[in-house]
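Practice set, problem 2.
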Amino acid sequence: MSVFIKSLKEKGRLDQIHITICNVGSRKLSSQDDYGAGAWNLFAPNLTIYGFDADADACEAAEADLELKNINWTEKHIPLALGKSIEEKTLYVTKHPMCSSLYPPNEPYTDRFSSLPELCNLDFTMDIETTTLDAFCAEEGINTIDFLQIDVQGAELDVLKGASEILNRGVLGIQTEVEFSHIYANQPLFADVDAYLRGHGFTLFDLTPAYRVRARSPIASKIRSGQMLWGDAFYLQDPIGENVNPVVKELSKILKIACIADILGFPDYALELLEYLTVNYGDNSEYNFAETIIESLSQFPQLVENGLDSLPVVTNILPYLKK
């Protein structure tokens, strides 16, 4: 649940912010894949979404769905396969299209797990041309992307390597699928992705893992859900940490990170950044969030009962309440 962003929206504090989201592997399988809905919609009309998928039919379906809606944001779905370079590649199309990859399925391994072969096993292959996110952004004149979501079945590191320029320009948050075992042959694993993103200043905030049990086992643990095979990893920039990309330290970027953190379910980090902006730059009304902090914390009855004034964060921002 978002804590601060609704108040920010109501007070007009988001009017000067424009959020650009890039969704690589944008096939819409559930409501969670619809970035124009939910909390992200609070940025509308200052919201731009670029969706990419190697499946042209999936992009066409997404565009057709958008035409039926009276949306108040910008959203485009582009039938491109993104990778680490502009080159000819083989796309391994699996029995369920959502598991298709630039890496071949590791069938001897996935056959050992329940409910994977019918999803991940190979159906057919096709030759495609990949391009890079950097090349797309250069062609379209896109200078920055704020939030990057990647789900390309083992090729996430390839997409990130093809986005090194845009990463250096200040991508603020990333949600990427990662694998912990070779579901696809010779694919990069979580450790490879993690090392690359840490090298670009990102901090890992959370993992939401997925588990599978062995296909031949009639038993399963009540304690463990099976083997952790893949998951979503959530990364954010830390503008008040050490060795930070100077671009990320821009005040407007810090506010964006706070908003993204709140949407992703890290309200403690959002609060830390809003407090930082208020205490250090609150003499400028644009970055004084004392009122928003108090109003948002007042949603929690236990905090109110114990006395908001007893909270260190509130004590710290009290001098800025009337500024």
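Problem 2, part (b): a different protein.
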Amino acid sequence: MMHLDGLTPGYRNALWIVIAITGVMFLVETAAGHMYGSHVLQADALDFLDDTLTYALSLAVIGASMRVRAAAACLKAFLLCLASLWVLSSSIYHLFVSGLPRVEIMGAIGLLAVLANTACLTLLAPHAHRDANIRADGLNYRHDIAGNVAVVIAAVAVWVLQSPWPDLLLAIVATGQWFFITIQMLQQAVRLYRASGESSMR
């Protein structure tokens, strides 16, 4: 979780805009991936879900105790773990029951995701000197943009090969990584929650 105590009004407004952008993109990629058969879009949506939960929960627990912050971190990790497991399971299932995704939808939404992450990076950049979390997130957004570009490349590969395999394989690799990361996040959050409970009893 990010510690946002003492943030300026401009910083707070920027975060709310970022939450709106990432939340909408999570819904768009999830819905489009489901409707048009692209699992890599659903996998890419996990990045937007992570950003939305990180900023929204961090804003919600400003000034709260360490135990409340730890509980919020547990909630975030649990939701991400469930989402990544669902996308991973669906992708593996469709290895055996496959259909060709709509490549034009994949490509268009992949490009839209690039624009969305670029906008978030631009919004947060003026505040990077105040918060090490934002400087770190600048690197994360660049990584996310690379993932968005990979979605576009996968769409091209599906179109060229007329095969769903590029979409499925990239989705499985991406969500497999996400699942293991979220398991680690959940373990760390649970340890922090337990530690905060012990410290509050002293």
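Answer key, part (b): The chain has a mean pLDDT of 88. The chain has one domain: 9-194.
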